[in-house]
Amino acid sequence: MHNRKFPPTSSPKPAATGSSPTARWILTLGTQLAALGLLASAVPISPASAITIRFPRSRNAYRVCAVELIEAGVGAEAAAAACADALHPRDISKCALQINRKTNISGVEALSSCRRVRRPVELATCVVNINSKTRTQPAAPLLVLDGCRRSLLPQQFAECVVGLSGKLDFPTDRLMATCLDPRDKVSLDGRPAPTPPTELIAPPSRLN
């Protein structure tokens, strides 16, 4: 008998690595991640350089003071002297400029008062509010400026004058005098209250 020769059975060949789309995608992604890792290790980023925050430069207070005073009509020499002498120069210039812009008071007159008070910004608010918000007969602007300058608490002084003007039909200068010295009281009919006898006035209390 003749032995029949059968062709050898062909076993399936293993697929080449990377032949399928999924394998190629994984290989590409791994290569990119490895490249990024090498780049990050070669160029380290410090926390200080990772985020840069820039703050605007603060403007020079003395320069702003001089500009605002000159804008208010103050001469260059007077502006330089006032700004150089001030502990907070911008408060001085803001005070003078605001009074000059919103009232009929000159910048020179406003600056003279602004330099003589401890709260120049409140002084300006006081003058502007009394001139613009009182509902009774207005007072002369320079009188208002002097009243606000004499008050230790200009903002509260202005609230007193403006508040009373809404209910009392008194001239503004009289309201200012009352708010500066509450002991100068008035009666309900508008006439000054009589001064009580000396024996009825309580003596000042003594501090222990």
Describe, in plain words, how this protein is organized in 3D:
By secondary structure, the chain is mostly helical. 55% of the residues lie in helices and 0% in strands. The protein contains ten helices and no strands. The chain has helices at 21-42, 47-50, 61-71, 76-85, 89-102, 107-114, 120-133, 141-150, 154-165, 172-180. Helix 3 packs parallel to helix 5 (89-102) and helix 6 (107-114) packs parallel to helix 8. The radius of gyration is 42 Å and the shape is elongated.
Can you summarize this structure?
With 208 residues, the chain is mainly α. The chain has helices at residues 21-42, 47-50, 61-71, 76-85, 89-102, 107-114, 120-133, 141-150, 154-165, 172-180.
Identify the notable features of this structure and list them briefly.
208 residues, elongated, 10 helices, mainly alpha
What is the rounded Rg? Answer: 42 Å
Q: What global shape is seen?
A: elongated
- Give the count of helical stretches: 10
Number of strands: 0
Indicate the mean pLDDT: 77
Structural class by secondary-structure content:
mainly alpha
Order of helices and strands: HHHHHHHHHH
Low-pLDDT residue spans: 45-56, 193-203
Distance between the termini: 143 Å
